[in-house]
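Summary for the steering committee. The consortium agreed at its last meeting that each partner would contribute one worked example illustrating the joint modelling workflow. Our contribution is presented below. We chose a case with several input lines so that the handling of multiple components could be demonstrated. No manual editing was applied between input and output; the record is shown as generated.
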Amino acid sequence: MHKLRITLARLYMGLFLAFMLAPLVVMSGAAFNDSRLPSIVPWKGFTTHWFEAMINDGRMMTAFGNTLIVALAVAILAVIVGTASAILINSISGRVRTVLYSMMISTILIPGVVIGISTMILWTRMGGLLFEPGQKLWPFIPGLHLSVLGQVSYIAAMVMLLVLARLQSFDAGLEEAALDLGASHAQVLRRILLPYLYPAIGAGGAVAFFQSIENYNVTQFTRGGMDTLTVYVFSMVRSGVTPAINALAFLLIMVTLVLALIYEINRRRLARIESAREAEARRATALEEAI
Amino acid sequence: MNDLIRRYGVTITALMCLLVAFWLVMLVIVPNITLFEQSFRPYLPVVDVGGPKDVYSLGNYAKVFDGSIERSIFGYTYIIPVHVMTFGLTIWYSIVVTVACFALAYPLAFFMAKIANPKSLPTLLLLLFIPLWVSEVLRAFAWWIILAFKGPLNALLLALGTIDKPVRWIVDYDGVVIGLTYTYVLFMLFPIYNAIQSLDTNQIEAADDLGAPWWKIHWRIVLPHAKPGIASGCVMVFMLSAGSLLVPSILGSTTSQWFTQTIDQWFKDALDWNTASAYAFILLLLCTVFVSIALKVFNVKLSDIAK
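What follows is the complete predicted structure of the assembly.
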């Protein structure tokens, strides 16, 4: 009976993985189908024509570039703001901490639609107050910079959570020691605290980057005529889609796969080193006891 | 705070406070206050803005009750304003998605946390992460291909002999629910997995030894322990579903309308930002109410959700 249940669980696991991954396979497959509509049935023969179509699609390439710029800007800003918030939250306590912390987390729960509209209205209205109508200047006009600000407003919270988790295991004594030995404030921050936080900051940056690429809701309301990849793909799906999108999706999936593979190989290597080290330690203890 | 100044000096501390203030004040609080204020203003031509007609009113909120249609359910016919119905259906189908995600994710989370071989677990997690890294629009698009009338799913089921003739999958809200479930199920899986992982396996074995049937073990031991994770997953999935604009737009049928789509139409098509603000504020209110209720029901704190 117990065995049967475990087999069933394994089967379910397999089915779930298939459910998660099948759409990606279908989408990749459609990139190579010589059919004007993106699908894998009926199969009309193998072609790489859609990859050429993708490269020749100037608007898509512009959108791709915009996406990367926005994602980079969001990652940088979110990392700076998120790290500063984590350090601040970590060093205060009591009611102030609770209020600040709750406010920061609640930004994750605000619907993107609300963030988008509110950001757009605030900045355009500030422009309306500062300038005569018709001669509004950057940054008070709609555009991707507003998308960046809108996205940072909730992505910073994710970075904050990641950095805060690492900060909690930080030994503040290290900073004390550095200060006692005559380090300046900037040195303490740069040489002691930040190096300790780098793994979390790196992870936060990666999360921010990918979250930004994903984002549609905020961008849709603030972009003001500019395209990002998500917006462009969306408009294509609504009005005349070609498998060029599938070609792009295939490339993106491949990039993800390669990154995942590198990560996995690296993890296994580290695990092997770790277990070898443990084995050696065991041998050493056994040897000591024998002597 | 004094501690910060002692460690990093006045300049750096002030800089950090400024950054946090910029985030919370300029990017969160002020925009939302502006949204709130704007939602009470009437939609006027540019010349009239700030003029005598520009007075606060509840007019934008009242638009929710405009334009009624007749609907019938279980043979009982009633008249309901279109936007109220959209709002209600958005909540209802978001709940459906949340329940579906829980039903799909819970057994898997338990399997991963307690049964699966710990050595193969990182690989498993990585495989599950891959769809999460492919953007949402592409995942919705993938389902758009799969669920098409002449698409792979129908072809597969026809070949297997499960169905005799192609099924229309994207009718009413079906496509939206399938797409949202696929997109957000992992936001349910990981919190529950984390919660179950911290459960001492001895407790399960003790219950098993004492003769508890498997469902009772789950009901009395695993589920109560996983409560914070479940709360976190449910809140995330519900909020993301109710706030999603992409999936309902791509996988929606002619008869489905999501509340975010209504907001989008006020903003982009009608160019009436004030009414869009009012509707966005209603959505924000719904989310706040939902989170508060979920926190009460599950008896957890907001700070537990974020884990």
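Chain A is about 80% helix and 0% strand. The longest helix of chain A spans residues 244-290.
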